[in-house]
Amino acid sequence: MGTNAITASDTSPERETKQPAPLVRIPMHKIPDEEFVTYLVSRGESLLEQQPPQSALLATATQRHLRSSSLTSKKESEIIKDYANAQYYAEVEIGTPPQTFQVIYDTGSSNLWVPEVGCVHCGYKILHGGKNKYDSKKSNSFVEDGTDFAIQYGSGAVSGKFQQDTVTLAQDLAVEEVKFASIHDAKGMGIGYAFGMFDGILGLGFDSISVGGVETIFHKAMDQGLVEKPMFAFYLGDNSDGELTFGGYDEDKFAGEINWVPLSEQSYWRVDVDGIRMGSYSSGPTDAIVDSGTSLIVGPSKDVKAIAQHIGAKKTITGQYTVDCDKLDDIPEIGWTLNGTEYTVPGSKVVLQSAGMCIFAMMGIDFPSPGPKWILGDVFMRQYYTIFDYEEARVGIALSV
Protein backbone atom coordinates (compact mmCIF):
# COMPACT_ATOMS: atom_id res chain seq x y z
CA MET A 1 0.00 0.00 0.00
CA GLY A 2 1.42 3.35 -1.02
CA THR A 3 1.63 6.04 1.61
CA ASN A 4 2.34 9.70 1.86
CA ALA A 5 5.23 10.52 4.13
CA ILE A 6 6.08 13.31 6.52
CA THR A 7 9.58 13.38 7.81
CA ALA A 8 10.92 15.41 10.71
CA SER A 9 14.50 16.74 10.50
CA ASP A 10 -22.53 23.31 29.37
CA THR A 11 -24.28 26.31 29.09
CA SER A 12 -27.28 26.79 31.65
CA PRO A 13 -30.22 29.17 30.93
CA GLU A 14 -29.21 31.40 33.86
CA ARG A 15 -25.59 31.80 32.78
CA GLU A 16 -24.67 34.91 30.85
CA THR A 17 -23.40 34.14 27.38
CA LYS A 18 -19.66 34.67 27.16
CA GLN A 19 -17.55 35.53 24.17
CA PRO A 20 -14.40 33.55 23.47
CA ALA A 21 -11.40 35.38 24.89
CA PRO A 22 -8.57 36.62 22.64
CA LEU A 23 -5.33 34.78 22.11
CA VAL A 24 -2.99 34.63 25.09
CA ARG A 25 0.69 33.66 24.90
CA ILE A 26 3.02 33.23 27.85
CA PRO A 27 6.78 32.47 27.65
CA MET A 28 7.88 28.98 28.70
CA HIS A 29 10.85 27.62 30.58
CA LYS A 30 12.82 24.45 30.13
CA ILE A 31 15.20 22.47 32.30
CA PRO A 32 18.13 20.71 30.56
CA ASP A 33 18.05 17.02 29.65
CA GLU A 34 20.86 16.13 32.00
CA GLU A 35 18.67 16.58 35.09
CA PHE A 36 16.23 13.97 33.84
CA VAL A 37 18.85 11.49 32.72
CA THR A 38 20.90 11.87 35.90
CA TYR A 39 17.77 11.48 38.01
CA LEU A 40 16.77 8.28 36.25
CA VAL A 41 20.15 6.69 36.60
CA SER A 42 20.68 7.70 40.21
CA ARG A 43 17.24 6.50 41.26
CA GLY A 44 17.34 3.25 39.34
CA GLU A 45 13.66 3.45 38.40
CA SER A 46 11.90 3.03 35.07
CA LEU A 47 10.45 5.99 33.24
CA LEU A 48 7.00 4.53 33.65
CA GLU A 49 7.44 4.77 37.37
CA GLN A 50 8.64 8.35 37.00
CA GLN A 51 5.81 9.73 34.88
CA PRO A 52 2.32 9.87 36.43
CA PRO A 53 0.19 9.93 33.26
CA GLN A 54 1.77 6.67 32.16
CA SER A 55 0.80 5.14 35.47
CA ALA A 56 -2.67 6.63 35.05
CA LEU A 57 -3.18 4.37 32.07
CA LEU A 58 -2.77 1.46 34.41
CA ALA A 59 -5.32 2.82 36.87
CA THR A 60 -8.18 0.54 37.68
CA ALA A 61 -10.33 3.68 37.80
CA THR A 62 -9.79 5.04 34.31
CA GLN A 63 -7.48 8.37 34.16
CA ARG A 64 -0.18 26.22 20.24
CA HIS A 65 -2.70 32.64 12.85
CA LEU A 66 -5.56 30.23 12.81
CA ARG A 67 -6.52 28.46 9.57
CA SER A 68 -10.07 29.84 9.63
CA SER A 69 -10.17 33.63 9.41
CA SER A 70 -13.17 33.62 11.75
CA LEU A 71 -10.87 32.30 14.48
CA THR A 72 -8.44 35.21 14.42
CA SER A 73 -7.74 36.22 18.03
CA LYS A 74 -10.33 33.67 19.21
CA LYS A 75 -8.20 31.16 21.02
CA GLU A 76 -6.43 30.77 24.31
CA SER A 77 -2.87 29.65 24.77
CA GLU A 78 -1.19 28.06 27.74
CA ILE A 79 2.51 27.92 28.32
CA ILE A 80 3.82 24.40 28.26
CA LYS A 81 7.02 24.17 30.27
CA ASP A 82 9.40 21.41 29.37
CA TYR A 83 10.96 19.59 32.29
CA ALA A 84 14.16 17.90 31.13
CA ASN A 85 12.74 17.57 27.63
CA ALA A 86 10.70 14.77 29.12
CA GLN A 87 7.99 16.43 31.17
CA TYR A 88 5.84 19.38 30.08
CA TYR A 89 3.71 21.41 32.44
CA ALA A 90 1.82 24.72 32.55
CA GLU A 91 -0.19 26.92 34.88
CA VAL A 92 -3.85 26.57 35.79
CA GLU A 93 -5.77 28.73 38.25
CA ILE A 94 -8.45 27.46 40.62
CA GLY A 95 -10.82 29.52 42.75
CA THR A 96 -11.71 33.19 43.28
CA PRO A 97 -9.35 34.87 43.78
CA PRO A 98 -7.23 32.46 41.76
CA GLN A 99 -4.78 30.00 43.28
CA THR A 100 -2.05 29.01 40.82
CA PHE A 101 -0.85 25.47 40.16
CA GLN A 102 1.58 23.84 37.79
CA VAL A 103 -0.10 20.88 36.08
CA ILE A 104 0.63 18.40 33.36
CA TYR A 105 -1.88 18.91 30.55
CA ASP A 106 -2.50 15.27 29.82
CA THR A 107 -4.43 13.96 26.81
CA GLY A 108 -4.12 10.48 28.32
CA SER A 109 -6.49 11.14 31.25
CA SER A 110 -9.66 13.15 31.91
CA ASN A 111 -9.67 14.53 35.46
CA LEU A 112 -8.12 17.57 37.10
CA TRP A 113 -6.55 17.03 40.48
CA VAL A 114 -4.25 19.11 42.68
CA PRO A 115 -3.06 18.63 46.26
CA GLU A 116 -4.98 20.29 49.05
CA VAL A 117 -3.75 21.97 52.20
CA GLY A 118 -2.66 19.17 54.55
CA CYS A 119 -1.91 16.72 51.76
CA VAL A 120 0.53 13.97 52.72
CA HIS A 121 3.20 12.56 50.41
CA CYS A 122 2.99 15.76 48.41
CA GLY A 123 6.61 16.68 47.89
CA TYR A 124 9.42 18.18 49.86
CA LYS A 125 9.82 21.87 50.61
CA ILE A 126 13.54 21.72 50.06
CA LEU A 127 12.89 20.82 46.43
CA HIS A 128 11.46 23.50 44.16
CA GLY A 129 9.75 25.10 47.18
CA GLY A 130 7.31 22.23 47.66
CA LYS A 131 3.88 21.81 46.08
CA ASN A 132 1.22 24.47 45.69
CA LYS A 133 -1.86 23.35 47.63
CA TYR A 134 -5.52 24.25 47.15
CA ASP A 135 -7.22 26.03 50.06
CA SER A 136 -11.01 25.99 49.68
CA LYS A 137 -11.41 28.52 52.51
CA LYS A 138 -9.70 31.14 50.37
CA SER A 139 -12.06 30.79 47.39
CA ASN A 140 -15.34 32.71 47.11
CA SER A 141 -16.49 30.44 44.26
CA PHE A 142 -15.88 27.14 46.08
CA VAL A 143 -18.83 24.75 46.38
CA GLU A 144 -18.35 21.65 48.52
CA ASP A 145 -18.96 18.28 46.85
CA GLY A 146 -17.19 15.75 49.06
CA THR A 147 -17.58 12.69 46.84
CA ASP A 148 -14.64 10.32 47.16
CA PHE A 149 -12.02 10.37 44.42
CA ALA A 150 -9.38 7.69 44.01
CA ILE A 151 -7.15 6.18 41.36
CA GLN A 152 -5.18 3.03 42.00
CA TYR A 153 -1.71 3.14 40.49
CA GLY A 154 0.75 0.29 40.27
CA SER A 155 2.75 1.79 43.11
CA GLY A 156 -0.18 2.90 45.31
CA ALA A 157 -3.28 5.08 45.46
CA VAL A 158 -3.95 8.77 44.94
CA SER A 159 -7.02 9.77 46.91
CA GLY A 160 -9.06 12.79 47.89
CA LYS A 161 -12.47 14.41 47.40
CA PHE A 162 -14.28 15.93 44.48
CA GLN A 163 -14.89 19.65 44.89
CA GLN A 164 -16.34 22.38 42.68
CA ASP A 165 -14.83 25.70 41.76
CA THR A 166 -13.95 27.99 38.87
CA VAL A 167 -10.93 26.85 36.86
CA THR A 168 -9.09 29.31 34.63
CA LEU A 169 -7.11 28.07 31.63
CA ALA A 170 -4.76 30.83 30.52
CA GLN A 171 -5.97 34.41 30.97
CA ASP A 172 -9.73 35.01 31.00
CA LEU A 173 -10.74 31.48 29.96
CA ALA A 174 -12.58 30.90 33.23
CA VAL A 175 -14.57 27.68 33.27
CA GLU A 176 -17.28 27.76 35.94
CA GLU A 177 -18.63 24.96 38.15
CA VAL A 178 -15.80 22.54 37.42
CA LYS A 179 -15.64 19.33 39.42
CA PHE A 180 -12.04 18.53 40.26
CA ALA A 181 -10.28 16.49 42.91
CA SER A 182 -8.44 17.95 45.88
CA ILE A 183 -5.93 15.30 46.92
CA HIS A 184 -5.11 14.52 50.53
CA ASP A 185 -2.75 11.61 49.83
CA ALA A 186 -0.49 11.42 46.77
CA LYS A 187 1.60 8.43 47.78
CA GLY A 188 0.65 6.56 44.62
CA MET A 189 2.49 9.06 42.45
CA GLY A 190 5.75 7.81 43.87
CA ILE A 191 9.02 9.63 44.16
CA GLY A 192 8.64 11.03 40.65
CA TYR A 193 5.88 13.28 41.97
CA ALA A 194 7.61 14.13 45.21
CA PHE A 195 10.62 15.43 43.29
CA GLY A 196 8.79 16.62 40.16
CA MET A 197 8.15 20.23 39.19
CA PHE A 198 4.37 19.90 38.88
CA ASP A 199 1.50 20.00 41.38
CA GLY A 200 -1.19 17.99 39.62
CA ILE A 201 -2.65 16.73 36.38
CA LEU A 202 -5.26 18.25 34.09
CA GLY A 203 -6.79 15.64 31.82
CA LEU A 204 -7.76 16.46 28.24
CA GLY A 205 -9.23 13.09 27.31
CA PHE A 206 -12.94 12.32 26.93
CA ASP A 207 -15.72 12.10 29.54
CA SER A 208 -15.92 8.32 29.00
CA ILE A 209 -12.70 7.73 30.96
CA SER A 210 -13.25 10.41 33.58
CA VAL A 211 -13.17 9.08 37.13
CA GLY A 212 -16.63 9.57 38.64
CA GLY A 213 -18.04 10.29 35.19
CA VAL A 214 -17.54 14.03 35.68
CA GLU A 215 -17.52 16.27 32.64
CA THR A 216 -14.03 17.24 31.56
CA ILE A 217 -12.84 20.82 31.78
CA PHE A 218 -12.52 21.27 28.02
CA HIS A 219 -15.99 19.84 27.46
CA LYS A 220 -17.33 22.36 29.99
CA ALA A 221 -15.45 25.17 28.26
CA MET A 222 -17.18 24.17 25.03
CA ASP A 223 -20.61 24.03 26.71
CA GLN A 224 -20.08 27.49 28.23
CA GLY A 225 -19.13 28.99 24.87
CA LEU A 226 -15.60 29.87 25.92
CA VAL A 227 -13.79 28.53 22.85
CA GLU A 228 -14.46 29.39 19.23
CA LYS A 229 -13.70 25.92 17.95
CA PRO A 230 -13.90 22.60 19.86
CA MET A 231 -10.20 21.88 19.52
CA PHE A 232 -6.85 22.41 21.16
CA ALA A 233 -3.33 22.00 19.82
CA PHE A 234 0.07 21.19 21.26
CA TYR A 235 3.41 22.55 20.19
CA LEU A 236 6.07 20.86 22.29
CA GLY A 237 9.37 22.63 21.90
CA ASP A 238 12.41 20.50 21.18
CA ASN A 239 14.86 22.08 23.60
CA SER A 240 12.92 25.32 23.13
CA ASP A 241 9.63 26.98 24.01
CA GLY A 242 6.27 25.24 23.67
CA GLU A 243 2.61 26.18 23.60
CA LEU A 244 -0.87 24.74 24.12
CA THR A 245 -3.61 26.58 22.22
CA PHE A 246 -7.33 26.37 23.04
CA GLY A 247 -10.03 27.09 20.46
CA GLY A 248 -7.99 26.56 17.32
CA TYR A 249 -4.46 26.07 16.08
CA ASP A 250 -1.52 28.23 15.09
CA GLU A 251 -0.35 28.06 11.47
CA ASP A 252 3.01 29.52 12.44
CA LYS A 253 3.82 26.40 14.43
CA PHE A 254 3.87 23.91 11.55
CA ALA A 255 4.90 23.47 7.93
CA GLY A 256 2.92 21.91 5.10
CA GLU A 257 -0.55 20.51 5.28
CA ILE A 258 -2.41 19.09 8.27
CA ASN A 259 -3.25 15.42 7.91
CA TRP A 260 -6.35 14.40 9.84
CA VAL A 261 -6.53 10.98 11.46
CA PRO A 262 -9.94 9.75 12.69
CA LEU A 263 -10.19 8.35 16.20
CA SER A 264 -10.96 4.68 16.59
CA GLU A 265 -12.82 5.49 19.83
CA GLN A 266 -13.56 8.53 21.98
CA SER A 267 -11.90 7.71 25.28
CA TYR A 268 -8.21 8.29 24.94
CA TRP A 269 -7.16 10.03 21.73
CA ARG A 270 -6.82 6.62 20.12
CA VAL A 271 -6.05 5.97 16.46
CA ASP A 272 -5.52 2.96 14.24
CA VAL A 273 -1.97 2.44 13.05
CA ASP A 274 -1.39 0.83 9.65
CA GLY A 275 2.10 -0.19 10.60
CA ILE A 276 5.36 0.74 12.33
CA ARG A 277 8.86 0.37 10.88
CA MET A 278 12.40 0.93 12.08
CA GLY A 279 15.19 -0.55 10.04
CA SER A 280 14.45 -4.22 9.46
CA TYR A 281 11.69 -4.17 12.11
CA SER A 282 8.11 -3.80 10.95
CA SER A 283 4.72 -4.39 12.55
CA GLY A 284 1.34 -5.22 11.16
CA PRO A 285 -1.75 -3.13 11.84
CA THR A 286 -1.98 -2.01 15.45
CA ASP A 287 -3.25 0.98 17.43
CA ALA A 288 -1.92 3.83 19.55
CA ILE A 289 -2.97 6.76 21.67
CA VAL A 290 -1.49 10.22 21.23
CA ASP A 291 -0.58 11.21 24.75
CA SER A 292 0.95 14.51 25.86
CA GLY A 293 1.36 13.11 29.38
CA THR A 294 3.74 10.32 28.41
CA SER A 295 7.37 11.23 27.97
CA LEU A 296 8.49 8.37 25.78
CA ILE A 297 7.33 6.06 23.05
CA VAL A 298 5.71 3.05 24.73
CA GLY A 299 4.97 -0.23 23.00
CA PRO A 300 4.53 -3.96 23.59
CA SER A 301 7.53 -5.43 25.39
CA LYS A 302 8.42 -7.89 22.64
CA ASP A 303 8.30 -5.20 19.96
CA VAL A 304 10.40 -2.74 21.91
CA LYS A 305 12.88 -5.50 22.67
CA ALA A 306 13.11 -6.37 18.98
CA ILE A 307 13.69 -2.74 18.04
CA ALA A 308 16.31 -2.30 20.76
CA GLN A 309 18.16 -5.40 19.60
CA HIS A 310 18.03 -4.20 16.01
CA ILE A 311 19.78 -0.92 16.83
CA GLY A 312 22.22 -2.49 19.29
CA ALA A 313 20.69 -0.99 22.41
CA LYS A 314 21.51 -2.71 25.67
CA LYS A 315 19.18 -3.14 28.63
CA THR A 316 20.46 -1.92 31.98
CA ILE A 317 19.73 -3.43 35.37
CA THR A 318 17.33 -0.53 36.01
CA GLY A 319 15.27 -1.39 32.94
CA GLN A 320 16.27 1.33 30.50
CA TYR A 321 17.92 0.67 27.17
CA THR A 322 21.09 2.54 26.38
CA VAL A 323 22.84 3.12 23.08
CA ASP A 324 26.39 4.03 22.12
CA CYS A 325 26.51 7.82 22.00
CA ASP A 326 29.09 7.65 19.21
CA LYS A 327 26.64 5.85 16.96
CA LEU A 328 23.55 8.03 17.17
CA ASP A 329 23.77 8.87 13.48
CA ASP A 330 23.57 5.15 12.71
CA ILE A 331 20.19 4.71 14.39
CA PRO A 332 17.53 4.44 11.67
CA GLU A 333 14.44 6.58 11.68
CA ILE A 334 11.23 5.17 13.08
CA GLY A 335 7.97 5.61 11.18
CA TRP A 336 4.30 5.23 12.04
CA THR A 337 1.74 5.06 9.25
CA LEU A 338 -1.57 6.63 10.28
CA ASN A 339 -4.49 6.86 7.87
CA GLY A 340 -2.15 6.27 4.92
CA THR A 341 0.50 8.84 5.85
CA GLU A 342 3.82 7.91 7.39
CA TYR A 343 5.23 10.05 10.17
CA THR A 344 8.90 9.54 10.89
CA VAL A 345 11.18 10.57 13.74
CA PRO A 346 14.97 10.48 13.26
CA GLY A 347 16.71 7.82 15.32
CA SER A 348 18.80 10.46 17.09
CA LYS A 349 15.57 12.07 18.35
CA VAL A 350 14.55 8.83 20.08
CA VAL A 351 17.46 9.22 22.48
CA LEU A 352 17.89 11.25 25.68
CA GLN A 353 21.53 12.23 25.98
CA SER A 354 23.45 13.60 28.93
CA ALA A 355 26.97 13.43 30.36
CA GLY A 356 28.11 10.72 27.98
CA MET A 357 25.07 8.53 28.51
CA CYS A 358 22.42 7.96 25.87
CA ILE A 359 19.10 6.43 26.94
CA PHE A 360 16.84 4.99 24.27
CA ALA A 361 13.53 6.84 24.72
CA MET A 362 11.33 3.81 24.15
CA MET A 363 9.80 1.66 26.87
CA GLY A 364 8.19 -1.77 26.69
CA ILE A 365 4.95 -2.32 28.59
CA ASP A 366 1.99 -4.55 27.94
CA PHE A 367 -1.37 -2.96 28.66
CA PRO A 368 -4.21 -5.39 29.34
CA SER A 369 -7.09 -5.38 26.87
CA PRO A 370 -8.80 -3.15 25.93
CA GLY A 371 -5.81 -0.90 26.53
CA PRO A 372 -3.74 0.50 23.66
CA LYS A 373 -0.78 -1.29 22.15
CA TRP A 374 1.35 1.82 21.64
CA ILE A 375 1.62 5.29 23.13
CA LEU A 376 2.91 8.12 20.99
CA GLY A 377 4.24 10.40 23.69
CA ASP A 378 6.32 13.53 23.74
CA VAL A 379 9.11 12.01 21.65
CA PHE A 380 6.62 11.93 18.77
CA MET A 381 4.80 15.18 19.64
CA ARG A 382 8.03 17.19 19.73
CA GLN A 383 8.41 16.52 16.03
CA TYR A 384 4.77 17.03 15.02
CA TYR A 385 2.32 19.82 15.77
CA THR A 386 -0.71 17.95 17.08
CA ILE A 387 -4.30 19.17 16.95
CA PHE A 388 -7.03 17.48 19.00
CA ASP A 389 -10.45 18.03 17.42
CA TYR A 390 -13.10 17.12 20.01
CA GLU A 391 -16.19 17.62 17.85
CA GLU A 392 -14.96 15.79 14.76
CA ALA A 393 -13.23 13.06 16.83
CA ARG A 394 -9.91 13.29 15.01
CA VAL A 395 -6.29 14.23 15.46
CA GLY A 396 -4.52 16.59 13.09
CA ILE A 397 -0.78 16.13 12.56
CA ALA A 398 1.67 18.42 10.80
CA LEU A 399 5.43 18.88 10.88
CA SER A 400 6.50 21.24 13.66
CA VAL A 401 8.71 24.19 12.83
What is the compact description of this entry?
With 401 residues, this protein is mainly beta.
List the helices and strands and how they pair.
Elements: E1 4-7, E2 30-31, H1 33-43, H2 47-50, H3 52-56, E3 76-79, E4 81-83, E5 87-94, E6 99-106, E7 112-120, E8 143-153, E9 156-169, E10 173-185, H4 190-195, E11 200-203, H5 217-223, E12 231-235, E13 243-246, E14 254-266, E15 269-273, E16 275-278, E17 281-282, E18 286-290, E19 297-299, H6 301-310, E20 314-315, E21 321-323, E22 334-338, E23 341-345, E24 351-354, E25 357-360, E26 362-364, E27 374-376, H7 378-381, E28 384-389, E29 394-400
Parallel strand pairs: 1-23, 2-4, 6-11, 7-10, 18-27, 19-26
Antiparallel strand pairs: 3-13, 4-5, 5-6, 5-9, 7-11, 8-9, 9-10, 12-13, 12-28, 14-15, 14-29, 15-18, 16-17, 16-22, 19-27, 20-21, 21-25, 22-23, 24-25, 28-29
Explain what you see.
It is built from seven helices and 29 strands. With 401 residues, it is mainly beta. The chain folds into two domains: 227 residues, Acid Proteases (Cathepsin D, subunit A, domain 1); 149 residues, Cathepsin D, subunit A, domain 1 (Beta Barrel). It has an eleven-stranded mixed β-sheet. 50% of the residues are buried. About 13% of the residues have low confidence.
